[in-house]
Amino acid sequence: MKMAAPTASKAASLGCNNKPTFPELDFRSGARVEELNKLIQEFTKHDQREYDDQRALEIHTAKDFIFSMLGMVQKLDQKLPVANEYLLLSGGVREGVVDLDLDELNVYARGTDYDMDFTLLVPALKLHDRNQPVTLDMRHSALCHSWLSLRLFDEGTISKWKDCCTIVDHINGATNYFFSPTKVADWFYDSISIVLSEIQKKPQRGMPKVEKVEKNGTIISIILGVGSSRMLYDIVPVVSFKGWPAVAQSWLMENHFWDGKITEEEVISGFYLVPACSYKGKKDNEWRLSFARSEVQLKKCISGSLMQAYQACKAIIIKLLSRPKAISPYHLRSMMLWACDRLPANYLAQEDYAAHFLLGLIDDLQHCLVNKMCPNYFIPQCNMLEHLSEETVMLHARKLSSVRSDPAEHLRTAIEHVKAANRLTLELQRRGSTTSIPSPQSDGGDPNQPDDRLAKKLQQLVTENPGKSISVFINPDDVTRPHFRIDDKFF
């Protein structure tokens, strides 16, 4: 007698078709995705610092000192605009918050040299009264760069700034003044040094200690000691524009990941020229376009898990690809923005996909190196790696290959580095915890009134607005009352 073979459903119920379940693995390295996710979470926990009332007050005290100093710089020779609007970014220039070259920067390490770092864009000139698009003189420059003629400004502005210009005489007898990033940076450093020297002659109770002032290329780096904290401010002289540059106009015609999440008006509210030149450009004349204000808005639309992966990847490549300096964290940021355009929003919103995103960013970066191609996100026709030699890109690609072969080990190294930096910071805080430093405005009385309320408010702003920009409006005649804006909210 023949028996019928069991049906598929009956076989499954009898356990004949059971398949063993495997943990999700990364094909290239064999690493467990779950383990990578846990390592990224651990890195994030140690990398993100929480601020108590004392630390929040120290942040405010340092900020007040820097803005008061800039008010005094304005009064020196009236070069800076009286009503100025600064852009304050969390993270120093070395963290890639602005597209600047890192070659000329001295190496500062968190924990060893500072505890918190900021970048402050300070407009030396503002051009805010023109309708978009803004057309720049790019005839002498590579893509993403421009010279700036002072013919765009009034006679008073030319008179004030002509000593910071290079002069070009035309055949017809006319003289053209081109705003020089190197001369502006020299003037800015000299002016800041004069002001700090004057401030230190009359120290006030609770005033931050200026531990270091250095000119790094066209950037002025100041490290302040406030209470038990050390704050690094990278101050960058810029030219500020309202509107949008004509060279980036076609970018607005494309579909982007932020469509429908924020308005186009928020994204294209303004841009900057920062003091950096192209590989073959003329250092004394050439400025680089920066979309730092737009990037702050776009950051609102990036998922938390992708940002965690980005921060972890950045920590790995800063150490690994530091010599020779060819890849900066800003390149990685650009790749992340391109990935946001390329991939579905619901995929990028997955909370437990940080490991996938980290591996993808490493793959993207290696692809860019091998092909020597990294388009600027806002001006795609500008290849930010074009100037690199084949030898350099292949050296870095091989280094990245070692990361891709064992991402877990490199994450553990990044975690140990950030933990070591935190230990150094805590040790410094313990040594300084016996002396609580009041605000510079304090008369030496109770340091908790009224600054305690201010500290609590500032702590709330810092907690609720991580990574956002703070635009500050300063009246140099009354620097004790700054009005500052976090993105589009005034305080």
TrEMBL record:
Alphabetized InterPro entries for the sequence = Mab-21-like_nuc_Trfase, Mab-21_HhH/H2TH-like, MAB21L/cGLR
Q: Identify the residues that the record assigns to the Mab-21-like HhH/H2TH-like domain, covering every copy.
A: 325-400
Q: Which UniProt keywords apply?
A: Nucleotidyltransferase, Phosphoprotein, Transferase
Query: Per the record, a Pfam family?
Result: Mab-21
Q: Give positions of region: Disordered.
A: 431-452
Question: What SMART domains does the record point to?
Answer: Mab-21
Which residues lie in Polar residues bias regions?
A: 431-442
Q: Can you provide one Gene Ontology molecular function annotated for this UniProt record?
A: nucleotidyltransferase activity
Residue stretches making up the Mab-21-like nucleotidyltransferase domain: 136-298
- Known function: Probable nucleotidyltransferase that catalyzes the formation of cyclic dinucleotide second messenger in response to some unknown stimulus.
UniProt family annotation: Belongs to the mab-21 family.
Extract the PANTHER family matched here: CELL FATE DETERMINING PROTEIN MAB21-RELATED, NUCLEOTIDYLTRANSFERASE MB21D2
Protein name per its UniProtKB record = Nucleotidyltransferase MB21D2
Natural source organism:
Neovison vison
Recall the taxonomic lineage recorded for the source organism: Eukaryota, Metazoa, Chordata, Craniata, Vertebrata
From the UniProt record, report the name of the gene that encodes this protein: M21D2
